[in-house]
Structures are given as structure tokens and as C-alpha cells.
Amino acid sequence: MGGTLFGRDLVAIGDLGRKGIEDVLSNASEMQSVLEKGKRVDYLKNNIMATLFFEPSTRTRLSFESAMQRLGGGVIGFADANTTSTIKGETLADTVRIVESYSDILVLRHNWAGAAREAAKYAKVPVINAGDGAGEHPTQALLDLFTIKKEAGKLSKLKVVIAGDLKYGRTSHSFAEALSLFGNEFVFVAPEELQIPDSVYKSVVKNSGNAQKSESLSKAAADADVIYMTRVQKERLPKPEDYQKFEHAFRIDEKFLKSVREDVLLMHPLPRVSEISPEVDKLKNSVYFKQAGYGVPIRMAVLDMILNGDSRDS
Length: 314
Ligand code: NCD
Hints:
Blueprint: H1 17-36, E1 48-53, H2 59-70, E2 74-78, H3 92-99, E3 105-110, H4 115-122, E4 127-132, H5 138-152, E5 159-163, H6 170-179, E6 185-189, H7 198-208, E7 211-214, H8 217-221, E8 226-229, H9 243-246, H10 254-257, E9 265-267, H11 288-293, H12 295-307
Parallel strand pairs: 1-2, 1-3, 3-4, 5-6, 5-8, 6-7, 8-9
Helix pairs in contact: 1-5, 1-12, 2-12, 3-4, 5-6, 5-12
The structure holds N-carbamoyl-L-aspartate (NCD).
């Protein structure tokens, strides 16, 4: 086991670097063989994970819980902060100070970008960021890269189109940052108002030296190896009435796919709304459901590396 994550927080993908990402992906392959054998292991039998979810989630929370249970650990937590003392005015810092005494690791989702970093300041146990507002979603980026490695067979020399709401979509931030460490070409496709934040763009240019912005999906996608589509983040738009303006900005349907390479990998962090038509689901290269499934081995790897490092007690 790589020791890079042992005892540490995972708040942003930049906390890992290329070597750290590679370690997680190779551990996730091991975890995948554990899963393929239909096994539960007891690598984390003495540990409890707390999931503190202040925002809605299906995949992230359930795959974290599944991962922890597959590793023999226990799970506590909440999926609706309205049932917690937050409603009585308790601060995030106090919630963290309490829950850390009930568990060995905290997995936090919050609507405020910066919440996970703040929680990590107070927590004595490691904190994993499971999505902080329009900030980052590092474990999603790890499972996205795992998907590309498994399905395209490589992580470099790819033309990658990242499309949709790149301003408020945190998955696009962590994904672009992570993949730019491996030498790829990027086109960020979004309406101008929803383009990728400057800080992410600059960092991708610095890492990969090869990035552009565009408003035309068909132009950018024609020779792409990977199309990473995202939904408009309705809940984060400053003016909710703007949603109508953007919701149909892009749509991938069977007709659109005639204009792209036959072997293009079509990805989406999910949930999708209308940006990928359901008729596309049956295509071999529509890997978004498989991608969501890779959340379990990736999160098993992350939990094991943070809590066990190089030494498992079993
Ligand atoms: C994403 C998120 O929460 O940022 N969902 C996920 O974790 N797979 C994407 C989204 O909500 O659009």
C-alpha cells in the first residue's frame, strides 16, 4: 500500500499530486479484484466512518458507505442536515468536534466551497471532501480517472472535452486538475457565463500546456477521445431564473454522436438531466453508469490508504 495518504485529509485533488493519484488508482485495481470475488474484507474492521451530508447525494454517499462496509468497517452519519442540530444553530466546527469523537474518519458534503478545508482545521481525524459547493470533489476525479484508465487503457495523450456548467460544477474542476497532470489536451466547452474558473484554467495550462475554451461542442468534440459532460448546477445559479437560459445549451443524442469519433468515451459524473439523451445509454462507449460503479473500488482504496497506510492489522 502506498503511504502517501496515511492519516491525511483529502480536501482537494492538489493534495495528492500525480504520484498520489497513481497510488490510489493502483490500489483501486486491487480493491476491484476483491469486489469481483464478491468478497468482504476486514481491512477496516476496527474503524467507523461518519458521513456528514449537508447537500443531496445518491452516488457519493452510498458508494462511500458501500466501500466502508466492504472493508469491514462501520458507518454512521446523516443525509439530511435538517434532522441534525444544525437546525438549532450548531456551527460546522462544533458538529465536526462532536462527530470526530464517534468515528475515525469524516466524509463531508457541504454547499459552501471551503467547508471541507475548514472542517479539517477543527477535526483531529482525517476529513474527506465529498463535494464542497462550487469548489472541488476529489474522490469523483479519482473515479473519473480510474474510468479513463480502465476504459481507454491510458491516461495521457488524450484530447479531452469538458462541457456543461464548468463554473459551478465542482467535478469539472477536480477532474481537469487531476487529468492535466498526465499530459493531455483540453477544451472547456461552456456558455461564456458558465466557463471554467480562471484559477482552474491557469493551473491546467501550467500542468498540461494545452488548453482552450470554446462555446461550440460539435466543433470541439469532433476529434475528441473523451467527452466529459456535466449538468447545469441549477441550485448554485445566483439567479435561478437563468436556468432556462442554459438548461438546453448542449444535448448529446444519437444524431450528435454521428459527428464524433466512434470510439469516443462518453462520461458524466451524474446525475444527468437533459444533456445526454437516454437513447445514448445503450452505446458501448457511454460509460457513465460504469463510471459511477467505479466509485466503490476508488473509495475503498482511499479509505484504506488514509486509515491503514502501509500496515493493515489483519
Ligand atoms: C456531482 C456533484 O455532487 O458534484 N455528483 C456526484 O457526486 N456524482 C455532480 C452534480 O451534482 O452535478
